Known about the structure:
- The chain is of the alpha+beta class.
- It contains eleven helices and 48 strands.
- The chain is globular, with a radius of gyration of 26 Å.
Amino acid sequence: MMRALLLIVFPLVELVTPAWGDAGVLIPSTARQPDPKVLTLDEMQIRVVIDNGNAKVNVQQIFANHTGMPIEGNYVFALPGRALISDFAVWDDVTRIPGVILERKRAEEIYNDIRIQALDPGLLQMGERDADEARRTSLFTARVAPIPAWGTKRVEIEYQERLEVAQGAAFFAIPLKPDVYRAQAAGRLEINVELQSAHAVNDFQFTSKTLPMQISERTNRSVKARFEGTNVAFTEDFALQYTLDARRDALEVLTYRDGGGPGFFEASALMALPPANAAPAPRTVVILFDTSLSMQWEKLERSYRALETLLRSLKPADQFNLLAYNDKVTPFAPAPAAATPEAVGRALDFLRTEKLRGGTNLQTALDAGLEQTFSGDPYLVLLSDLGATRGIIQAGKLGEWYGGKWQALAEARRPRTFVFAVGDDANEPLARLLARNNGVMEWVRSTEPPEFKLNSFLSKIGQRPVDDARLSVTPAANFDLIYPLEDSVFPGSAQTWVGQYKTPGGQAAFTVRQTRATASLPAQNAQHPQLPRTWAKARVDALLEKIDRDGEDQATIDEIIRLSRQYKFVTPYTSFLAAPRALLRPRLIRPGDPVLRVKTDESITSVVAMFPFGTVKKLRYLTGEDTWQTRFLAPKDLADGTYRVRLLLRDRQGRVFEEAKTFVIASQPPTVKVRLERQRVRPGDSVRLQVSASDTTRTIVARLNGAAPVYLRWNPEMGSNTGVLAIPASLAAGRYKLTVTAEDFAHNSGSGEVEVEVLP
């Protein structure tokens, strides 16, 4: 008998533990890491269709159960930062069971009904998040059951992503390289790529070295390529890039209409690159650098790289200052000064002496940045994950506060606000709110190659955005609900508008900056099927902005849910519309004094938390942050493990709601054992490292004074974490300590050391 299966699709993101760069991982429900003795990835098929900068990615995977009993698995997929999940399904033998998108409260009711009937539901959902946090769509997780004994289970996920164009180039990547979980491999991997572009394509290339794609078709507007391999280890992300002919402005129009109802169009305007000899005016750049504890390892390395690249790109005629911040602000200098090579070197030395510590008072840092003396072309550059834990922490309120402070400055002193967000758990909604103050934002995930996004971000410092990039359409009365997809557009980038046309037939004229294009409005055109969903997502984004600005109203909420269902994509707000949701921060903690923060709807008048170790705490309402909060003391002798806290919420009518949340106690630092291929080396040598560490370990980094840090990855063939240490050719002879540090999900750190002798 076929089992019933319910799949409710919601995004999930971690707030305190660093997020996850793994794609399509199925973990036995009894384990915390993939176990090839229990489940393996036998087959994986990836199909990528890029239509005029819109990428649709379909991933199908077959997992094999190597045990003699049915098991349940937890499926994890990390999405790119600009991606939108559009489909999820599992198979019961040869029957495809698609997911449905429902408002969360209704979804849980149906799920419980099915479970009571002793059927076998599956649930793909967001977890314990409010609307503000839910917009950080990075990770999706699903319970998949049953996986039959000695059998297989097929899983399918599909997402849509809009490619950014910067300096006339576009970049696309799929996050295959493991981050949290150990190295993954596919028994058989097949990748198919099709690209169509209305703009001419140049310099197309696949940048993944370990996945050699075979190109079967290539023109100046299309590419087809394929890869097939066996026993493929995922050691890097799959990535490609290409350039567009941006010598002059160009405008292209796509349309779609399927039967009755409105038609959809997309107008894509490519802005010409500036003259190569154009010199920027003198700039004043104030940089806010996050040195809180959440910025450890990859975030710190990437932020420092961005900082160094930015500082070394400045000219002596420019001025700069550097403000390091955590729960307090430490300036490099009292005021901006000339960006001489000597000053840049001192600033980098200053930052190297700063230690990561404390929480994050982003409000204080932004306030200190705005108080700097700006002259010439002013910029405030923020390098952070934007995870505020002090001051105002709610994204909408912090964005509103900053916008008010920024507007209060004299116009000549208002800096362009540039935000470079790092890490899969970066607060992307807050980054966008801050960047709307005449700036831009960029978001780079933990494992994706940072070069394209970093170069794109830095290239805009000193450039002027294209302020007159506006779309006009004739006849205007036949078009409705037109939205731009980019917050700002610069020379060498593209602005895209999506909208609806009411009546098919005839021609329409589209104009952007004196560049004109005409297009027919067909009654039936099945090409470019992504356009309805692209338009619906833009419409939902506009409605979410309206809620941020004016507050909630039922009509807006209902339209968001209707569009989500009709066009089959996930809206983060859906989960917010359920019964009051609680947020426990952090989910994974050390014993000590953590904070419980709860966000509820407006009807709730009191919240009481009942902890498993006997403590009962009444939460205090923080009016300025719209949050309930209390601190609780986790006993020092509390054993490591997963615990539940009960929340009793009372509304204005006296009704009581009960919810249960979980948190994990992790007190023991990772155990680290280091082995070197050899301990006596010469300058220019490469030495293989092997490190064993506890299974809760997230990151392992080896550091030798004078050499680049080495990030170790799990090697299933070696049964340990491995990496290669490059001994610099300029390193002086002598004895050095190699320190290997491992960090787990609760930020417990353990280390091991070995001595290395560099021979002359």
